[in-house]
Specification:
Layout lengths: L5 E3 L2 E3 L3 E3 L8 H9 L5 E2 L16 E3 L4 E3 L8 H14 L4 E5 L4 H12 L5 E5 L17 H12 L5 E5 L5 H13 L4 E4 L3 E4 L2 E2 L4 E2 L8 E4 L4 H15 L5 E5 L5 H9 L4 E4 L1 H6 L2 H17 L17
Parallel strand pairs: 3-16, 4-7, 7-8, 8-9, 9-10, 10-15, 15-16
Antiparallel strand pairs: 1-2, 5-6, 6-14, 11-14, 12-13
Helix pairs in contact: 3-4, 4-5, 5-6, 7-9
Length: about 325
């Protein structure tokens, strides 16, 4: 009998499959739809202080390999999500993870404080949205980020905090950020957000597919899986003795992908683009595929293989 359950901080999840923030999770029907699927927890769409409509359309495009988004954080504002969470919790026992992003230091603190006093189970702090023109990602500002992380921690002492980070493409950056996570006592990290400043060109029309930000946007989908796995494995090796957990995200389309992320050290995974493409059924499909792989390999729990990737030649 295979046990897929996992604990994120002290929060129990029946399985490691979570919807990625940014897809659904903005109102009660949306949240319940995801809770009724074979998810282990539900993650809200990132909330900001004020309600936002997001960027101009077209702001999303996909083909088999890639998806490009510049959604621009449309949401009803944090107060709305805090207000509906008790009602959501009457309809489902699944843990609720919120996501927040501030446009200033003070906004991050206000949001962390408010969610600390709310009914959500875990807070994912988004330091890495690439789609807001004129607002650089906090996660690439290595002087600002440690101060911000510490202040978020102080503002939300009672909730597990996960930092949503972008891809870091140099080991020195990863080392710096791993130390920041440890120093600021975050419980976890979500790796990776979409690959910002990406461009896909429609050669037929000679136009960009996306309207905002000169056509530049965040890349997701199958094609980014190697970058996501590299970040998960790289951070896992720096964080494994600290107790800081990892949610892996990026290009996960099937149970085999889930297996690979856990093998590289992920405690749980998030599914974004594949959720858009395949609908709520994607979670059951992935769960069944993961169980089949574990049965074939004789694993009975995720701990049997988490972080146990072997290096060729060893
Ligand atoms: C968006 O709404 O633009 C996506 C959110 C994100 O990338 O963090």
């Amino acid at each position: 009998m295979v046990d897929l359950s996992v604990k994120l901080a002290k929060v129990h999840l029946p399985n490691p499959l979570i919807n990625a923030s940014g897809i659904y999770g903005s109102d009660i029907p949306d949240i319940i739809k995801t809770a009724e699927a074979k998810t282990g927890a539900v993650l809200y769409k990132t909330t900001t202080i004020e309600e936002r409509n997001g960027n101009k359309v077209p702001r999303y495009w996909q083909d088999e390999l890639f998806a490009l988004n510049s959604i621009g954080l449309p949401n009803k504002g944090y107060k709305y999500l805090i207000q509906i969470t008790p009602e959501v919790k009457q309809k489902t026992t699944k843990p609720m993870i919120t996501s927040l992003l501030g446009f200033s230091f003070e906004e991050y603190i206000t949001l962390c404080k408010a969610y600390n006093d709310s009914a959500v189970d875990i807070i994912e702090v988004n330091f890495s949205c690439p789609n807001i023109e004129g607002k650089p990602q906090a996660a690439y500002n290595f002087e600002y980020l440690p101060k911000l992380m510490k202040a978020c921690r102080e503002a939300a002492p009672d909730k597990p905090l996960f930092a949503k980070l972008p891809a870091y493409l140099d080991p020195s950056q990863r080392k710096m950020v791993a130390k920041m996570l440890i120093d600021s006592k975050f419980q976890g990290v979500t790796l990776i957000n979409s690959l910002g400043e990406s461009l896909l060109v429609n050669a037929k029309t000679e136009k960009t597919y996306i309207r905002p930000n000169n056509g530049l946007a965040g890349l997701t989908g199958k094609a980014i899986k190697p970058v996501a796995l590299g970040n998960v494995w790289g951070f896992y090796n720096l964080l494994k003795d600290s107790g800081i957990q990892i949610m892996g995200v990026g290009g996960i389309e099937c149970g085999l992908d889930v297996f690979e992320f856990i093998l590289c050290g992920a405690d749980a995974v998030q599914i974004g683009t594949a959720y858009i493409r395949q609908g709520t059924a994607v979670f059951e499909k992935m769960e069944n595929e993961l169980i089949q792989i574990m049965n074939e390999k004789g694993y009975t729990s995720l701990n049997d293989f988490r972080g146990k990737l072997k290096i060729w030649g060893d």
